[in-house]
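Justification of computing resources. Each target in the renewal requires a structure prediction run like the one illustrated here; the chain below, 275 residues long, is used simply to show the kind of job we budget for.
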Amino acid sequence: MNIVNSPVVTWPKKFDVLGVQVSATDYDEAVSAIIGAAQASCSSVVSLHAVHPVVVASGDAKLRAKVNTFEMVGPDGQPVRWALNLLYRTGLKDRVYGPELMIRICERAAACGLPIYLYGSTEAVLRELQINLTQRIPDLVIAGVESPPFRELTAEEAEEVVQRIRASGAAIVFIGLGAPKQDEFAYALRGRLALPLVCVGAAFDFHAGTKRMAPRWMQRRGLEWLFRLVQEPRRLWRRYFITNSLFLFKLMLTVLRRRVLRVSTQPISTTGETT
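Resulting C-alpha cells:
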C-alpha cells in the first residue's frame, strides 16, 4: 500500500549544498513540522546531515537522488550550517543536532500523546535507550523497539518491518542505523507508512550512554568530529580526514563558481523546483 503525502504539513525551505538539498531550519521549526506530520499521518522522511553524509551523497548520484526526495534534511553539523549561511545568507544561529532534535521530538510527542518506535542499533543499546528515555520523559509512549540484522533486509523482511510498525500504533519512527544506511532504509520504506521516519544517526548510542557526547563548547565550534576521532581513531580517521577535506574543497569551488557565474541564492522547494 502506498501512502499519499498530506498537503497540510509545511516543510522548511531547502538549499543546494554540494548537490544535496539541505533544509535551512532550526529546532522549533523542525519539531513542529515533524509533529505536524505525525498528527496528520503524513508519510515523510527526515534526515540529519553533518559533513560526512553530505559529502557521501554529493559523490553518489543514486544516493543523492534519494536523499533529495526527503521532506527535510537538517543541518546536523556546524560546517553544514556555516555553508548555508555563507552561500545563501540564511542566518541560522545553530545547527539541528540529531540527538538534541530526538529529545525535543520525544518531549513534544509525549505531550501530544504520540507513540514512538525505535529502529536500529543493538538490543543492549535499545534496552538502555528505553530506560533513559522513559526516565527523562515519563509520559513518553514507546510503542516498539527493533534491532535489525547487520545486513540488508530481504523484501519479505522489509515488509514484515512495515507490518510491525503499523501494528504497534506508532506515530513517529526514529531510525538509528548510521549514514548512509539509514537514508537507504528510510527511502525504501517511504510511502509505505503513514508517519514520519526520522533518521538520527548516533543519537541512540548517545542517549543510551554507550558513547560519549562532545562537550558543548566543542559542538559550538564545529569540533565534534575531533572529539569523536579521539574516541574512535581507527574507525573514524579516514572518514573525517578525507570527507572534511573534500567538503572544504567542494565548498570553496562552489563559492568561486557562484562569484563567477552569479548563481541564484533562491531556495529549492520540496518538489525540487526553484521557488
